[in-house]
Amino acid sequence: MLEKRNYKHNLQFDPGDGLINGQGAGEVAKMKYGFYHMAWNGCEMIALYNAAHALGKHEALADICLEMYPKSSVACGFFGSNPLLLDRYFKNHGIAFEKTYDYNAFFNALKEHRCGVLSFWNRRRVFGSLHTVMVQWDNEKRQIVEYNKFNSKTVPVPHDVRGLVTSKKLFIVGYLLP
User: Fold this and answer.
1) CA distance 57 to 4
2) What angle do CA 14, 15, 20 make, to 5 degrees?
3) Which helix (H) or strand (E) holds 120?
4) Rg (CA), the chain
């Protein structure tokens, strides 16, 4: 029920039609997921939105939140969404994916995929907070491009090495999308 009320609220805001960066900036920060604003907890939904967009499926962020809240939210959105359940979105939309819990397998295969969604602990495992982002391999620049890396940085962040996205120790799960 909360997701329907939030859906009406979220329709008032236009986060734009491109990839989203900086969940704490602009219109997206005013949108809600659970009891909280997406500036606090929207990274998983933004990662799904960005991945769908990168695959040419232009679904509104409000629609993704409406669909996924009952399937993946944690503690009424306080902890965002359970990253292990994001595959429900891909399954529901007929999007092929590979799910892995292996850091090296994810980054080694990223070059052969259109994009990936990955979740990782920010500083320490289990009792720390986590973050979920969409990443793409830029073949021309030979870099990993990370979307929504920081709360207030509204541009994608390029990395020359995977360790700047996250470390093997902090990696939780990754979804590779062809």
Assistant:
1) 22
2) 165
3) strand 115-121
4) 15
Q: In which residue are the tokens 């029920």 written? A: 1
CA dihedral (92, 98, 102, 103) in degrees, to 10, reads -90
Model confidence pLDDT, tens digit, residues 62-117:
999 999 998 888 887 777 899 999 999 999 999 999 999 999 999 999 999 999 99
* Torsion angle in degrees (nearest 10) through CA of 73, 107, 165, 32: -20
Residue 153 sits at the vertex; the CA angle it makes with 70 and 11, to the nearest 5 degrees, is: 40
Type of residue numbered 31: M
Give pLDDT tens digits for 30-62.
999 999 999 999 999 999 999 999 999 999 999
